[in-house]
Amino acid sequence: MCAWHDSGHGALTQDEPTDLFGAPLAPRPLLPRLPEGLVYQPEFLSTADESALIELVRNLPLAQATYKSYTARRRVVSFGGSFDYDTNQLRPGRPLPATLAGLRARVAAWMGVAPTALVQALVAEYEPGTPLGWHRDVPDFEDVAGVSLGTPATLRFRPYPPVEPKRADVVRLVAAPRSIYVLRGAARWGWQHSVAPTPELRWSITWRTARAGSRAASLDQQDESAERGAVG
Ligand SMILES: O=C(O)CCC(=O)C(=O)O
After folding, report:
1. pTM above 0.85, yes or no
2. Which of 27, 77, 189, 202 has a CA between 20 and 30 Å from the CA of residue 125?
């Protein structure tokens, strides 16, 4: 797995401090501010893989996500496990389509885990202008990996719990289409993340391992068949 690097395909940025008149102060060092446990790799997929996945995702039964009384703007479908925000329960979800089994195997290999360790997948579609608010993923899951499709998106990270929330505490990672990232350890538990609205359609396919002893550990990890999917 590649270590994080700024290759021009994805970029790590943070708000530069300015004086009262907007003139830049001394730039902050970037490296000490990286969330530890965030690993990013551009060009994880080929453009052909990306096109095949977009075609596949467009045919999935995406629906607007609901969080108690709030209906989110992004459309999602989950596999393996589905979190019910009304009851705060993780429920067994639909099996992973065979067409996504190949991608799961590749993501798992990149993460260094068995494919069956990825007990949950969430496919999300962000229409232009659709944001995803600040959150940490539900605690049933441990590591979270995300594959991006379509258009670049700015992922924002801020320390959690906030000690003294400030705009300058926000670290931004531009996730390029075809890239992959993973949140582990501090990046997963000690930081919240959000997604800024994009001007074009974007999709993400996020994959989650079970947290030891959690309800996710008993999720059925099967896919619909043992066949390889559209992306091998
Ligand atoms: O779209 C992404 O890459 C992030 C998705 C996310 O944070 C989530 O679904 O919890």
Report:
1. no
2. 189
> Distance from CA of residue 130 to its chain's centroid?
15
- Is the domain spanning 34-218 CATH 1.10.287.180? The answer is no
Task: Answer whether 193 contacts ligand 1 (Cβ < 6 A).
Answer: yes
List all residues 6 or more positions away from 166 whose beta carbon is below 8 Å from its beta carbon.
none
Q: What is the pLDDT of residues 125-172, one digit of tens each?
A: 999 999 999 999 999 999 999 999 999 999 999 999 876 666 668 899
- CA torsion 34-40-41-44 (nearest 10°) is -170
Q: CB of 122 closer than 6 A to ligand 1?
A: yes
Question: What are the boundaries of each domain within the chain?
Answer: 34-218
Tell me how far apart the alpha carbons of residues 154 and 12 are, in angstroms, rounded to a whole number: 9
Identify the residue whose tokens are 């990232």: 181
